[in-house]
Amino acid sequence: MLSHALRVFFVLFEVVLLFNLLIVVHELGHFLAARWRGLYIEKFGIWFGKPLWKKTIRGVQYSLGSIPFGGFVALPQLAPMDIIEGKADIDRARLPKISALDKIIVAVAGPLFSLLLALFFACVVWAVGHPVSESDLTTVIGYVDQDSPAAKAGLRAGDKILEVDGQRVSRFSGMNDSVVWNVVRSEGPVIPFKVERDGAVLSVDVVPRIAETSGWRRKSTRQVMIQPAVTPLIEQVEKDTPAAKAGLKPGDIITEMNGARIFNAIALVDQIEKHPTDELTLDVRRGAEQLEVKLRPVLLEAEGTKKPRIGIRWDGSGRMSLSHPDPVEQVYHSITSTLQTIGAVASPSSDVKLQHMSGPIMIVRIYYLLFESENGWKLALWFSVILNVNLAILNMLPIPVLDGGHIVLAMIEGVRRKPVNIKILEWVQTACATVIIGYMLYISFFDIGDLLGKNGDQKSPKKELPAPARAKPAP
User: How far from chain centre, in Å, is Cα 426?
Assistant: First the structure.
C-alpha cells in the first residue's frame, strides 16, 4: 500500500513538474523580451494563489504561489490584465510609453519560447525514441463491427485502407493522415474509402454513424466502427482456465480461429460471446513452431460478473516499437495537427466542436496516464512537443488577452500612431478574459465528467476505436 502511494506521489510530482515547465518557459519568454526592450516588469510569479514566498529584486516582485498551476509575468505597459494577474500596484498613466514594435516583440517571445522548448523536447525524443503501437502504424482493418456503417458498406477485416474522404492515410489513429481523424473530420453525408483487397483497389462509400447523446454529455463524433489489425499476442494466461489447460503461453500468437485468419483478438471475443459453448480451434504460432489448440470456453469471473471466457489477456494496441522521428518532422506534424483541429472546430459543417477539446484537467490526466505507463518519460516528452506547439499557436490567435491579441492591438496602435484608449482596452480585455475563463470552466465540466465515467460511452459501440491499453482481458 505504501509503495503504491509513493508511486502515485512521484507520478503526480512528475506531472506537475512537466506541465508547469511548459507554462513557465512561455512566460519566461515574455519576461526576457521585456527585460531586453526595457519594459517595466511588475511581477514574475510561478504558480497562482496566495504567495508561499515572494521577494522584490531590482524592482521586480518574484513569487511562488500556493496553487501549483503555471505562472505569469505582469507587464502593465503591455495591456491591462487585472482580471487574471490582479490590479496593478502602479498607475499605468505614469509609466513611460513604449513603441508598438516593443509590444509585438514581447508578445511574440512567449510563443517563440514555447516552440523552442518543443524543439528541445523533439531533439530528446529523436535521441531516445518514443514508443509507437502496432495499431498506430497500420492502415489494415482488423475487425468490423456487425451491423456497423463499415459492415453495411462492405468493408472487411484484412482490407488495407489507402484513402479516407479523399485523403491518403498512413496510420490508423492520431492526427496527420490517419484513418480515425479523417473519419471524424469528414463533413459529407458519406465518407469515401479507397481500400486494397486481394491486390485490387476498391472504392467504398460509408455512411457514418453519430451516436445519440443527452444532457451535458459531449456530443459524439462520426464513427464507422472498425478496429485496426494488430498481432493477437497473448500477454497473460490465467491459471486453471481452458487456455492454461490447453497449453497456451504468454508470447503465443493466435493466427487463425476455426480455420479463418484472425486480424484482431476482438474477433475471438465476439465468437465466444455468440457461441459460448462451442469448441474453438485455434492456430497458434510459438516462435518458429505452429500449433493447433482445441478448447472450450467456461464461465469465468470478469469485471465483477461471470462470462464465457478461455482465460487469456492480450494487448489491444499490438506490439510496440521505438520511433525516432527527426525534430523538424515532429514540430511540423504538431503544427499541422493543431491547425487541422482549429480548422475542424471553425468549420460550421464539422461535427468537431469546442466541447471536444481537452482542458487543463484532461491534459494533466493524460500526463498522469503516460507517466504511469511503460516508457512513461519518453511518451510524456513526445506529448510535450505537441502541447508546446499547441500552446504557441493558440496563443497567437488574434484574441485580446492572448499574445495574438496584443500583437493585433500593437499593430492598430502603429497604424493610428497612438495607443488604444485605456478604458476601452480594459473593457475589451476583461470581456475576453471572462469568456476564456468561462470556456475553460465549460471544458472542465466535460473533462470531470469523463474522469467520473459519466460521459464515456455515449451509447457508442463497445469496440469503437479504444485508446491503446496494456493487458486487455480477452475471452
Answer: 35
* Residue-wise pLDDT tens digits, 275-296: 999 999 999 999 999 999 999 9
Query: Who wins on pLDDT, 421 or 185?
Result: 185
Tell me the CA end-to-end span of the chain in Å, nearest whole number: 30
Buried b (16+ CB within 10 A) or exposed e, 142-162: bbbbeebbbbebebebbbebb
List, in order of start, the domains of the chain with CATH numbers.
Answer: 14-129+380-436 (no CATH), 234-314 (2.30.42.10)
The whole-angstrom separation of Cα 192 and Cα 219 is 23
- What's the pLDDT tens digit per position in 116-140? 999 999 999 999 998 988 888 899 9
Single pTM value for the model? 0.84
Q: Are 170 and 138 spatial neighbours (Cβ–Cβ below 8 Å)?
A: no
Q: What is the pLDDT of residue 67?
A: 87
Q: What b-and-e string marks burial along 83-122, b requiring 16 or more CB atoms within 10 Å of the CB?
A: bebeebeeeeeeeeebebebbbbbbbbbbbbbbebbbbbb
Confidence of residue 474 (pLDDT cuts 50, 70, 90): very low
- How far apart CA 16 and CA 56 sit, in angstroms, is 26
